[in-house]
User: Fold these one by one.
Assistant:
Number 1:
Amino acid sequence: MYRTHTCGQLKIEDVDKMVSLAGWVQRSRDLGGMTFIDLRDRYGITQLVFNMETDSALCEKARKLGREFVIRISGKVAERSNKNLKIPTGEIEIICNKFDILNASEVPPFTIEDETDGGDELRMKYRYLDLRRSVMKKNLELRHRMAQEVRNYLSKQNFLEIETPVLIKSTPEGARDFVVPSRMNPGQFYALPQSPQTFKQLLMVAGYDRYFQIVKCFRDEDLRADRQPEFTQIDCEMAFVEQDDILDTFEGLTKNMLSNIKGVEITEAFPRMSYSEALENYGNDKPDIRFEMTLHEISGLVKGKGFEVFDSAEYVGAICAESCSEYSRKQVDALTDFVKKPQIGAKGLVYVKCNPDGSYKSSVDKFFDQDALAGWASELGAKPGDLLLVLAGDKSRTLSALSELRLEMGRTLGLMDKTIFAPLWVVDFPLLEWDEDSRRFYAMHHPFTSPRPEDIELLDSDPGKVRANAYDLVINGVEIGGGSIRIHDKALQQKMFKTLGFAPEEAEAQFGFLMNAFRFGAPPHGGIAFGFDRLVSLFAGLDSIRDVIAFPKNNSGRDVMIDSPAKIEEELLKELRLRIEQAKA
Amino acid sequence: MYRTHTCGQLKIEDVDKMVSLAGWVQRSRDLGGMTFIDLRDRYGITQLVFNMETDSALCEKARKLGREFVIRISGKVAERSNKNLKIPTGEIEIICNKFDILNASEVPPFTIEDETDGGDELRMKYRYLDLRRSVMKKNLELRHRMAQEVRNYLSKQNFLEIETPVLIKSTPEGARDFVVPSRMNPGQFYALPQSPQTFKQLLMVAGYDRYFQIVKCFRDEDLRADRQPEFTQIDCEMAFVEQDDILDTFEGLTKNMLSNIKGVEITEAFPRMSYSEALENYGNDKPDIRFEMTLHEISGLVKGKGFEVFDSAEYVGAICAESCSEYSRKQVDALTDFVKKPQIGAKGLVYVKCNPDGSYKSSVDKFFDQDALAGWASELGAKPGDLLLVLAGDKSRTLSALSELRLEMGRTLGLMDKTIFAPLWVVDFPLLEWDEDSRRFYAMHHPFTSPRPEDIELLDSDPGKVRANAYDLVINGVEIGGGSIRIHDKALQQKMFKTLGFAPEEAEAQFGFLMNAFRFGAPPHGGIAFGFDRLVSLFAGLDSIRDVIAFPKNNSGRDVMIDSPAKIEEELLKELRLRIEQAKA
């Protein structure tokens, strides 16, 4: 054993003990006859003291230690004269009588501090150094504790963690699969799972009525800022349950996590909101309900007054920003610029200042008198001192732009406190989405989602109207989980594939095993999957998932540390019977 | 909720309660005016009663239920007149007053019983039905509990579970990798990890001094009976430790598992045996020490007596089978046939019967008199009534054949009791293995294993003699885990790559990131990995790992249930810029 204690362990009670520690040199200071070194390991930092007077040779040697050298020391615990009460070991120091260098270190390419001077790319390339920073350690420790908590909670609820295969079969539905050529079956491929969906359904058919798994999933997508080609899900499924049973179970899990990990106690039930309500009131299907500022349609109040922009709009809607009536011209212009950004896409912004004196000042005074504006204010419940922000246009785009504007105002007004957790169930999603390009319906969740029984007859007459037994868990505007009650009837599943435009042979070739399974007594079942990376990052108060993943990939799906993907040996390609096509010039 | 209780829950205390249950029809019996149905779910079986007298319509309907129909029932708990004390719910039955068919079932292709009539292939194709059998449920429940136990134990010991990437980089060393073509980087590939080896070492460099992970690993090998292309490891690594610290830690884990899962208490330390001792005494590096019957070399006693087979042999060795002197001609012939099988490869078998009267009878009486045979018997500690079995030939092949013969005798004599667990550490493995074909050394474990410090100088002069700081955990002759102290010094790692015949550029291209990491303060570290599938199968008393895996693949690496691997769409191949070469005619 290289040490008797860790660098986070020794306290004032340990004074006079002979100890040995091992770790990294965090920093070193020479003060006259003394050299002080902060020794760091996973558990903390302990101050070492070398005294020129009592052992000059050792002290000279200690002065040569550079940052990030790995050393092992022995010495006696002593009380510090100037205590550092910010760290748990700050009351003591070690008077060293011996040390060995276990490994030297070159000067690291960036500082190993909470606020490092290393840019993103450098930190990714030297991820093993980046991971030494205590903020990164806290993230990975949090991730570990959360995974343990999930497992212990679900195990106590009789869930079994069952591993499903990673080498499965490719299906063209949904996102693009990563594939794995099979050497033993040349010309054939495995695929990596986008989720264990069909396997967990088969486990329900097999009678394992409470399944979960914390599991890696894979999606070969063009990566957006906060996506990774491999990501981790808490994947769950239950049999003999209805939607409410699933919501209750996983609401229990979420409350338990918030309580045990974050110390946040939520006693009341999570609010439930329909998809259409979410769209109407928040402009999107994952509302951040930490603050109100809901959307209000005012089309009825504003049309026919000669203002062409409103008159020609499918939808006119507004939000009310509290206590913002004194916004300057510059502030309002900045908001206008914000909504006109291409990714938001509004044409312009109309404002109404509800002045403290009860009067109104708007950018459309020419068309609307004080009474008209008072009507808007009343519709939005605005008080004197508030500011109304109005957007108009095509309904779906305007809802989405208003949603972005609302979030922007939430950020500006400090309404998005990261220590507050506001969970919400969004329910009653549509079953299908129409795609204008391919002129067909797509499953909004996936083809195994059950329509609501009362809507099944609409599948033939008006498929777009069919609601699904599907639900999302949203916390602070982040979609944390989603799931549904599944189809467990062979005929209904076949009908669903038909509605999605699958030829019967196609459905059989791809999902025949599942429909076969439904022939032998499939129980009613449903489930949910949580994005574990996102959940951890939410709990860590981070905006990105990258820093809760030990070795993430960059936006091109590349691991710059190990330099992967990479070319492989010709020999291996030959064994796989593959040839790489050169790009066309 | 479809039920108030599970089928394993209701007891005599529940008599008179109104309950509802849901599950599968296990079997059904019509006895005069009554119909009895055994209803099965994950938790057990409960007997349902339908009474023709009190509700003939319901009873008629119940009589039509086939095996594996999924039903939900309501009724009253009643005490059974003929109790079945073999099952926990055997004292009660449910007098049903209502039921619904939740799903019908065709007649399953094999019986859902512990002793099923389904062959291996059929069971694999309908794995979801096979998994309904209670023996399979017990296996998966055991696996779940073992995984939980590992996680809880290691977490309490301050280990962090940290996920390492699945999409990594291919390295030609070791077994063949599965590769994953990258669409975003055409012509380049990821590889699936054979183990998280380099990543866990980087975590040590990053300061996470106690890491573990229960993790899927992948190996594209021609599959032997008990191998799977994807398998699960308990992967562990520690920093600032020496070999003994690692053995102690994971001995603790193993004892805890044996105690908490199997109720087997082992208080003394696990025996430790050197690799060379294991080879000499047991003929292989994973001795089953549930029984003695060790190998003894008798070359010195037998040579030069004119028996050509012994005289020309590099090695002559024997085992002593207790109380087998009365073996018949037929039994001895069967043993001779056994050792002559091609996979064992001995030329023949010499026996010596130590007769109860103190005399000896051997197959080589012509060459060896009673005194000579008494000398052999004494060397092996044989008593009157024992049987000596002698093999001769090339040393390594003969050791291995004797080892097989020893195990065969152990099986025959009932010395391999599955309820006994005999763990053993095998230590002091050689660092390198010479391969005659390629005329180079290979790493016996992997290229990151540290030589013993005192043997480092032999790396230049006599590499084959260098011992490694490597160890295996063997239980009942099964290699459960293996690991080593790793190299943490850049220069030594480079020397090791050179010894293994890597050109410097090659080593740099493949493992540059690791050697780079060693430049920045790598601590001494080491670890171990357990084969989780094998550990579970050992605990379950099974001979194969297949039945502790929910969805295993067959010996051609094929999942016959989902029919994978399979062809993929041309479109996807094109996006990956790959072409499949046709097989040569």
Number 2:
Amino acid sequence: MADLGFARVDLDREARTGDPEVVYGAGKTPEQVAAILTALHAKHPERAVLATRLSPEAMAAARAVGAEVHEVARAATLGPTPEHHGRVGIISAGTSDAPVAAEAALTVATHGAAPVEIRDVGVAGLHRLLAVRDELATLDCVIVVAGMEGALPSVVGGLIGVPLIAVPTSVGYGASFGGLAALLGMLNSCAPGITVVNIDNGYGAGVAAARIVRVSQRVSERLSERDATGR
Amino acid sequence: MADLGFARVDLDREARTGDPEVVYGAGKTPEQVAAILTALHAKHPERAVLATRLSPEAMAAARAVGAEVHEVARAATLGPTPEHHGRVGIISAGTSDAPVAAEAALTVATHGAAPVEIRDVGVAGLHRLLAVRDELATLDCVIVVAGMEGALPSVVGGLIGVPLIAVPTSVGYGASFGGLAALLGMLNSCAPGITVVNIDNGYGAGVAAARIVRVSQRVSERLSERDATGR
Amino acid sequence: MADLGFARVDLDREARTGDPEVVYGAGKTPEQVAAILTALHAKHPERAVLATRLSPEAMAAARAVGAEVHEVARAATLGPTPEHHGRVGIISAGTSDAPVAAEAALTVATHGAAPVEIRDVGVAGLHRLLAVRDELATLDCVIVVAGMEGALPSVVGGLIGVPLIAVPTSVGYGASFGGLAALLGMLNSCAPGITVVNIDNGYGAGVAAARIVRVSQRVSERLSERDATGR
Amino acid sequence: MADLGFARVDLDREARTGDPEVVYGAGKTPEQVAAILTALHAKHPERAVLATRLSPEAMAAARAVGAEVHEVARAATLGPTPEHHGRVGIISAGTSDAPVAAEAALTVATHGAAPVEIRDVGVAGLHRLLAVRDELATLDCVIVVAGMEGALPSVVGGLIGVPLIAVPTSVGYGASFGGLAALLGMLNSCAPGITVVNIDNGYGAGVAAARIVRVSQRVSERLSERDATGR
Amino acid sequence: MADLGFARVDLDREARTGDPEVVYGAGKTPEQVAAILTALHAKHPERAVLATRLSPEAMAAARAVGAEVHEVARAATLGPTPEHHGRVGIISAGTSDAPVAAEAALTVATHGAAPVEIRDVGVAGLHRLLAVRDELATLDCVIVVAGMEGALPSVVGGLIGVPLIAVPTSVGYGASFGGLAALLGMLNSCAPGITVVNIDNGYGAGVAAARIVRVSQRVSERLSERDATGR
Amino acid sequence: MADLGFARVDLDREARTGDPEVVYGAGKTPEQVAAILTALHAKHPERAVLATRLSPEAMAAARAVGAEVHEVARAATLGPTPEHHGRVGIISAGTSDAPVAAEAALTVATHGAAPVEIRDVGVAGLHRLLAVRDELATLDCVIVVAGMEGALPSVVGGLIGVPLIAVPTSVGYGASFGGLAALLGMLNSCAPGITVVNIDNGYGAGVAAARIVRVSQRVSERLSERDATGR
Amino acid sequence: MADLGFARVDLDREARTGDPEVVYGAGKTPEQVAAILTALHAKHPERAVLATRLSPEAMAAARAVGAEVHEVARAATLGPTPEHHGRVGIISAGTSDAPVAAEAALTVATHGAAPVEIRDVGVAGLHRLLAVRDELATLDCVIVVAGMEGALPSVVGGLIGVPLIAVPTSVGYGASFGGLAALLGMLNSCAPGITVVNIDNGYGAGVAAARIVRVSQRVSERLSERDATGR
Amino acid sequence: MADLGFARVDLDREARTGDPEVVYGAGKTPEQVAAILTALHAKHPERAVLATRLSPEAMAAARAVGAEVHEVARAATLGPTPEHHGRVGIISAGTSDAPVAAEAALTVATHGAAPVEIRDVGVAGLHRLLAVRDELATLDCVIVVAGMEGALPSVVGGLIGVPLIAVPTSVGYGASFGGLAALLGMLNSCAPGITVVNIDNGYGAGVAAARIVRVSQRVSERLSERDATGR
């Protein structure tokens, strides 16, 4: 653990959980974000460090220390993206959901899986969703991002058999109550096998999806060993 | 207005609003339900009187005074069903939603429109819904009944251009909070032109749908008059 | 579908649902609003395109590309208003509800029906409402806009027999909880046949009302055909 | 204060506040209700003691010790009703609200004012309310009891200038959330001068109304003294 | 009714309800506030018109047209204060509640009763409240203003027998949820005879209190007539 | 840890935390309650084991294995009560709060402190509370139990300087929402130094109070050691 | 699809999603449960059909048609359990959570993965959880079941790197609000990669976990193919 | 009591409760904060006066009158810190919780106990918490500060036997609902003996902890007296 004065930084997260280091930018100054990014990168130069929920000022500070900035995702990465195993779909309906979907996609990419973004497939226009059914069939895991009534996971969930992580967003007004309507809708989905994360938590969905793909590789390796040992 | 001792019964509702008389059975004794049904029927023998939210005992009492009992809808009617104008679809997903859908259908029928019930078309099995698209195109108005996440109106709403009335039901558990999840989902639907009634209010949806069809006839008659008068 | 870079624009909505194209301005830059308006108008020059929830800057940008701006409704239209069939009343109580009522009226007008605005008829001054009873009788559909306790739809609903769409507004303070009190009041109305849309959703109410009038014409045409064919 | 073993009974309430003694029956056994009624009556034989929220068994026990039982109000009184000063209207809409209205009326009567019950005047049938306007003008204070959307106080409040106490009831279903919708509606009423009590609290409304009439007498006596003393 | 272009102003409120004219300033421009104040004053020069919820700019505009500005109450009056009958206590705990208490006191004064302000008597310092018990005994009606847990009305309610109107305020943080905690506390008060208004609604409490005093006078006059006529 | 088949019982709790063993009876069969009580008592015969939230059947089963049953507290103890150090007041208002107060008092007693129960001191009758001020001054810690508006802790908190633990109860109706009103009231108390436990959690309050007294002894012993060692 | 009169049964679910057939028993009669189980088993004799949320009567009816009944899980299976691939941990804290944990474990088993149940590892006794750390390291996916404050997933989530599905239960009282506290706690977990299902939804968690293991196999097969083809 | 014009200042709080004077800075101008600090300090020069919830401007004003400013705690003290008895741990998880933890620590210090701050010990990294177990064993009382899911008190509560005060913070987003999730989590903790204060109320927790330590001294003195007197 490294002490930067304003924060003790956990430098061994990957060893414990397999996930790379991440800086949660909300409530941190641009200087703090840049300092933590630099410290983590120095410790783990071989793999990208991710910083999320960045203000425009924090994005500028991250860029100044050499990080790549991802505007739509309001995030930055410092260091090389890891090799990708498995394909994770990030499906979203409206353009307002784009920041959350982009955060999820970037998290997937920095955690070792290939993000496949599919946009503009709201439930009120089924033809768009049905048009991508073949693409859906190639995915190992799906993240569905939706605000307002949050119905998209139920519809997608009926079309696929792979794990589906639903992300409610705070997009909406009035009786959406800051994303509560979408959250409740997703928790009550009639399609089985759907799991849900917090409102606007694209990062959390990305980590979960990447872990799903990662465990696949682990199982795969175990099966290979069995084959090799003749068990 | 007739005074039955325990209630003053409004006998002139149809004249004021065009809707037939209705007995709301919740909280009334079987004897009260039977007495009010009989009084209303005596005043309006030419058109069916409707009684809703009946207990098994109230259904028996209604049957005893000559009413037709509708078990699934938990309702009874006394008097001849009116002639039907226009077709109102009542679309529902799960079997648990059947009582609310049946109440809506019966209300539509007693208020002068033809109910067309379409069942088992949940959003998690789109193929069922897509299979009835041609039938949807023949309807003048649609009532969509759904519990849990309440996503069905959004999906149906994207397929049609006629008025759509959404009825959330209390079917669900946990974070459905007695139908709140479905209600919020429907109010936040991304499909335009959807309107919503109270949780489990099949009767209210039926009245609204019948009024929509009735106003159609009024417009039609007005247009006919114009034609006749050469305007 | 046209790809503007930042959005894929649905150009065929009218063919699918009968509704004209609409730009939901919330969360879009003035430039985006202007670009989408222009693209949709180029595709459908014969009928007004509507843009709602515009900031003052977006209104200016809309005006700059030739759109007519509707200040109170915070909206703009580009292209000729369609011919009007049927009369839709938009009834509101307080001056604070004016923007929502104006959005509903403009939506009705761009969707093909004639809006009839009736203002300042709050429930605490029944004499005002009773003074317009004759006008109410001429309407084919009614939209009632109210904040605070949201009681106006119940009172109007007892006076008419045509479809009534209630719009709760976020006008109020304290225990109005951003329009929740009005929303719950309308959902629990004791007047039958009332349906409800999301808080402040004047647009949604306008679409629903226009669809009700449109289906009337459809029924009317069907009846005329029957007459012509002697059925 | 008298100690009955299971309760220490306050025997001096009237001296402190002017209100008579009351037994809140919820959660008490029939024997306890009867014993407290008897003890309070022995102390104050000149004025009726009131017991509210009684189960059928508690009503029987009260009757057995000589109390008068009021079935609809689920209450009992023991001792002579006091002389009545001032007239308090108790206005209610539906028959389901009858127990709360009856509790309010009985409380008014035992606290020294004359209750005037006006029933079946729901907002969805304004003609009924307008038919009693002359009677409203004779009242010194009004209690309005309503469930569902709770709109009645707003309408009555616009017609009168005397104090109005609104009582929301738990009558309703779905999004009434046990009376919450009516409570919020009344708290947000656009008619000025309305005050509200807890859901189903007919007793509290009755006490408040009786105090209003009582303070009138006090003021009156003060004015009389001035006249007599020439001040 | 006068039409000012942006509003139709009700000029006959006093005739209908006995209350003077009031301008609710929230959401109105300074110019609108000034114009309505002037129009109402021209119609009723003999009695003060009240404007509430004024911004600093609106207060300046009111002052410019001759109104007296009440800074703490965020209000203004134009015209002479009426003669006062009866004494209404306005009891508050913390200094943060001062604006709501001042609005209530000013409303009482403009509606014809004498406000008696008693401050800094929170429940956590009972000695302060007990020190004013003699003053409490002289009041005809009491308004209690409190935020946070809203316990003050219960304590005051146990000490007096006159009507008590409780006003919850939005003062607090965290689990006060914008005044909800105080509102619920007051609605559930164990002291009988307490009625409640909306959060921060000092105006509503003042109107209700003034009506209580006004009805006292009416009763008093009625009693005098009886004396005079020998009934 | 002992495995009883249906439960693994923690036998070493006291060593870890200083608290005795407890059986939470809700959801357990009478046989399970009796078996766990017996097993824990066999392990710790020197100190009473406590069982809470018992049904009448579970109380009977506990009595059958030699436990002492505490009816009002719905609890049982098996084994000798420990020596008491320090005095903990348990102050409650209404008789309906008695079970929660009794559970708190019994928990205090089995955890090593002397409970002092003070009843019937509601905020609406301050004279009762003021009458026990001298007794309050002798207490080392206070538990205040209250339902409805939950105002009692604020009033008591202003009179004392020792730790105060507030217990909201589910006593109430309507807008008490199962104890939520009392809970929010206590969390927002304007009296400093008040802490709160879950609704109806007399047990938790008792444990916390006993720990406060226990830490006092620890501090005392530490001070004694200092004295003995001359530090 | 087979029509049983009371329900149209989906017989092709596995083909579409890979999941076996399931009967949701809530709201179905024992006869209906038995009939659907039999019909589904006849169609898919090679793989167990699962019925959940069974009443004791429905369990008896299921047993009568040859199904194996799982008492704690309130469920039944008819047909042979499939071969298991991968290990899914089901970790729970209290004995009250046992039914939900058992439903999750049985669902995992019928969906093709090996359930590993780990019980009695609540957060308030960390030593128990730390004692099973080695076992945790062998799991491919973890389901964590907890009521009350729902903290267990956060603690487990910090110890592992595989996917974690959190199931809040309705175990608790007072401010648990039927599982809401646990649900919110899990959604807000500070441990990354946690996803959540509805309150008490052990079935949904089991399906999601089994899908995660299943996708692992798919990835594994894909990798094997690559090896075989030399890609 | 001193009257500063804008506030009557309580100068005798310590005599009544043993707590020093405190200025709650929210809603007060910098000048008011400085004036009250000065007045209280003049009255009690021997002991530090505390001012909390200060804006940067108020901190500057406090510094100008000689107060020591505590930036992180957003607070100021004027006068000498009292001698410290007992050790109170303030345990927090994230850096965002620092202001609330600092306010609690400063309050403890000004109320007479020694604060021991332990940071960065979140539940998702148990190793950090386990590393400070020996330090935990030396504390007389523990304050645990946590946002998001609020699980830390449950974990700490299982490790210690001294009183634990939990402080939920508003740190979080989405379904944290401003700290509600953490608050509910703490109230439902499965670890016994935990008590809770309002969201972000570090001050209240500090007062409660200091009172716990103070009562310890009182008990200690009493025991000493007994020893001295031979009782």
